[in-house]
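Minimal example, chain plus protoporphyrin IX containing FE.
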Amino acid sequence: MAPIALLPFLILNLAVATAAPPLRPRFYEKTCPEAEHLVRDVIKKNMEREPRSAASVNRLQFHDCFVNGCDGSLLLDDTSNMLGEKLSLSNINSLRSYEVIDEAKETLEGVCPGVVSCADILIMAARDAVVLSGGPDWEVKLGRQDSLTASQKDADDIMPSPRANASYLIDLFRKFNLSAKDLVALSGSHSIGKGRCFSIVFRLYNQSGTGRPDPAIDPIFRENLDKLCPRGGDGNVTGGLDATPERFDNQYFKDLMNGRGFLNSDQTLFTYPKTRQYVRLFARNRDEFLKAFVEGMIKLGDLQSGRPGEIRQNCRVVNSRPVDELM
Ligand code: HEM
């Protein structure tokens, strides 16, 4: 989906991230000491209301950080002169739980206004979603600023399609300083959450234009998927991305080894030799997965654009500027 020729320019931008102070743990220790607790409470409350919100919030980190760094650009609503990322190909009708981030932001603005960036809230929330789903806990680096703009085109160009194969994904992730091992570990986020029939009908009925299903799918699993997603059926019906979609565990990798990956981009990690070894390792050894996953999330969170930013008051809109600053 992404014109790969554009990526070097976008990545270069990430590489020259220098202007902002370095990210560090406990960034808000003095300025908003309760920040991390408060965000976790909001995530927890929302999970009690809707368990899937954990997965939806976790996914936001990937979609924010890959597009011009982790800068909260994903959260900006479109304006009359800016098409943001929310309606881009990979995000429209698919990303959800933006309102959970809004709730966390409102809570923090009530306690320490103008201090904690939306970009940082996303990073804390993505971690908390994993912890509260039974996954590992880790210390996140903070101190990001929120972008002043967003680009639907950049999101369209960069974010991978569920049709992508492992070789494409390895090349894409490498451009973000993420290895094949990071790719497999981070895809382990699909241990939680759901996907739509829209994202898999091609592999059920017409993989690579063959008019046939993807041969890598286990036949019994395929029967179930055919029932869930009949040809010409409702594309918005959802299925679990692994057999335990509310628990952050290594079941996802076991499923891949049995031809029970939901997305093509998942199953291809086992079909392809360079990534298969990591699928095997993580299926066999949960701790290796959790360790590699945390490393991957920290690297993903390190992506920065180096562009000027601000601490937004509302994650959906940039702060208004005094007229003289706009001249
Ligand atoms: C490797 C490339 C990846 C591709 C092609 C991909 C694609 C997708 C797709 C197509 C869905 C289902 C969307 C839908 O049907 O509406 C999905 C869901 C999800 N993705 Fe990924 N993804 C990738 C990597 C990641 C990464 C790196 C993370 C997090 C670090 C992540 C986290 C999630 C989560 C948690 C869900 C479930 C969301 C929910 O239930 O609302 N994905 N992904």
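The two ends are 38 Å apart (CA to CA). The pocket of protoporphyrin IX containing FE is lined by residues 52, 55-56, 58-59, 61-62, 94, 96, 160, 162, 164, 169, 186-187, 189-190, 192-196, 199, 241, 263, 265 (CB under 6 Å).
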